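Study this protein:
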Amino acid sequence: MAEKKKSKKGVAIFLTLFFGIFFAIGLGVLIFAYKSYSLGKESLEWPSVEGDVVYSEIEKRTRTRSKGGSSTTFSANIIYEYTVEGETYTGDKLRFLLWNSSDRSESRSTVDKYPVGKVVPVYYKPDSPDTSVLEPGTATTFHLLLSFGFGAVFMVAGLFCPVIVLLVFLHKRRKAKAAIEEQAQSDNLYATDSLSQQSIYDQGESD
């Protein structure tokens, strides 16, 4: 009995940690998305200075799926330098909330737009000049929905999956308890019937 309780406690701890990770990931993504969205809106009012593109290449990322196969995404890695009040900074933010794409042509057009050596306007945060972006504002509506939706899905999974597991567990527990009670009633009836038969037999013997 003690080992069974210990096993159930271990499963409960594992599920709590497992779904807690989902919730933490979702919360982190939502916080990041909200901050990026806020910075994107603020950047529309930021001042700008001239900067120079010092690096412009397409980055390729390939991920192997657990069930086999792989997926490849591309992104334009644009690095630029700019100077604010005599201080030189380096930035790599093209646009806020911009996700990688499986379409290589999108990254190619961005790299072609920002070749090495090109002079570009750099928009920077006045109270934190090291925060900058080349294209103020946020990404497309699709990227916004993707960012917030991804975080929301993980948070919902982290919140409601444990509830579902708990309900299933309680349902099975109720069924098991009902089965035990039904068996106990059956045993009692059998015992009562046996006693009645024994009483009748004893009475017959005495007569």
User: Anything to note?
Assistant: The longest strand covers residues 48-64. Residues 1-41+140-184 form one domain.
